[in-house]
Amino acid sequence: MYLKSLELSGFKSFAKKSTLHFTSRITGIVGPNGSGKSNTAEAFRFVLGEQSIKSLRGKRGEDMIWNGGGEAGSGRANRANAKLVFDNTHKLFPTIDFDEVTIERVVHRDNSNEYLLNGSQVRLKDIIELLAGAHIGATGHHIISQGEADRILSASIRERREMIEDALGLKMYQWKKLESIRKLERTEQNMKEVESLRREITPHLRFLKKQVEKVEKAEELRRELIALYKEYFREEEYFIRIEKERIAREIAGPRKELAELELALEKAKTILTDSKNKDTKSDSIIALEEKLARTRIEKDTIMRELGRLEGEMHANARVIEKEKEKQKRDEFKTVYVKDLEEVVQSIESLRSIEDARTLFTEVLSTLKGFIARHRSATDSALIAEAEQEIASLSRNRNELEAKLKGISDTESAVTKEYNDLKGAIEKEKDTNREAEKDVFRIIARQNEVRTIVAKLTQESGICMHIEAEFKREAGEAGMMAGRDAVTYEKISDAHHSDRVAQEERHRKIERNKIRLEDSGAAGGSEVLKEYKETEERDAFLARELLDLEKAKTELLTLVTELDARIDFEFKNGILKINTEFQKYFNLMFGGGRAELVVVKETKRRKKSDVEDLGDLISDPNEDASEESGPEGLDVNVNLPRKKVKGLMMLSGGERALTSIALLFAISQVNPPPFIILDETDAALDEANSKKYGDMIENLSKHSQLILITHNRETMSRAGVLYGVTMGGDGASRLLSIAFEEAVAVAK
Ligand code: ATP
Question: Cβ distance 54 to 60 under 8 Å?
């Protein structure tokens, strides 16, 4: 037994809190008309989430609330409250872990509703799901309200099908199917959206991919460029370094030499400049030569004079000797004045020697004096005169000799001076010649060395230019290819720097640079980032699409499976129901035939009718107004001993019996936890009431029964009986009664 109790408070005529305990498999509710029995059945539907207030005999939710009684009636309630208590020890509600489950609904005067599950507020949806799982559907196939007994017969074939589907517990599957279809629609919608997003992304992605290829190409070029640069700079740095070293090394010697040459040249030039003073020396030597010549002439003159003097003195001595001889033998000897005059004349003719003039004047005067004296003297006087003359000549000679000595000294001094000067001049001439030679040699050498220095300076200039270019290129390389391009290890091993190879490298670099510039891959990192992001997004969308496709396939499979299951369960259920239906029908009518038949709905349907679940999975191309509609259920009855066929031909009682047979058959095949039958037995005669009672007992083996009845036979089958009465206050009162009392209470 699943149903434990129903508690009402402020619900319709149940003003006060009233509780029905369902302790028996069959509970009977009895009472006079209008006492509020049906209100209890409605309370079930109310709790189970019935949304049609009309079907609860009201206009608004407010109508469910105790509205106060008559004159003596108590004041109206603010809320209607109905609570069902279930035993959950056998997991009627498998999702709930409690042994007892209470479902409660409250409606307020503002028509707002509250649903509570074990005291906690939940949504109506939660209640519906919970109940569907327990085969307590909201369509209320197991709650047959008053006058609704033949509802199953009067319903359309489609409604009937729905009712039976619900009774067979297929609503759960249909619900799942509906949910799956909705999911499928959402999935397809999502797929469309994802596909559209992908379509939107695709051209951009393609563009980005091209950009990325460019960037990658550029990156490749950049890497190549870096490698080239590294190699190039390494070699260039090495070249510049060794070139500078070489030039420095090679230029040092020549520079030093040039400095030395400059000094040497200075020196040589100084020598040459100094040699210009040689004119002074030449003048001096000329003067000396002249002086020497003069001295020599003077000396010669003196010598000659001395010679003459000595000659004269000798002559005088010979005169004296001759005279003395003459005196001895010829005392007298004649001197010719004429001769002397000739002498004088000859002396006087020596006038060209100007400087000797003075001397000669003296000599001449002496001679003249001699002549004068001679003219007057005679032989004896001649000797005296000669002696005098000798003495005079001797004195003169002494004087001359003294003079000669002086002049000889002068001569030798001048000669020495001359020779010294001459020697100095000669020596100087040698030095000048050397200096001159030096100047030529130095200048020649200077030219040579200057050429070397100039060459090296030129090379240095080239080297500096190369270095400046190197620095400029390093800067450019850093800008173009990043710092890495200018990060390299210096060459330490000496080797020949191959400039041709280096030129080739440079050409390669230039080519590479142009290609890199032409690649037009600016903002590489951003492009890569965007491409990565877009690609990730696309991949994400692709995955999502795959997931959605998978989900779609799964949903389609699920729908197909559910369809198959529904179809199978439905048809199988119909077969089972028909077996039971036939049995109950037989029991009721003592023969005949009754069955449910699956038929295609043939009447033309309006589009608005297409809310049937079957439609949702039917071919969307199928025209809704076509005749071939979904399957419905018709009821074929064939009463025993009567030729009439069809429901329309049945009497009220026959109709009631057929309904009951079908209801019981359905309940037999898929028993709900409880069944409420509100005066389903109203139209039965005594014999049929008996049969009805038997069937009820049979049915109660599978489902708990709550029977609202006026029927004595039915009452007799109930284990527990509740009497409902209504006092002057218009409020229903509930009391547990014994069968004996029940009959009385029911009246
Ligand atoms: P019968 O045997 O004739 O079918 P019943 O016992 O099933 O009668 P109900 O139909 O359950 O009687 O009860 C109807 C009674 O409940 C009426 O008297 C009606 O006035 C009363 N009732 C219905 N709604 C309210 C309400 N909101 N407030 C007060 N009384 C109400």
Answer: no
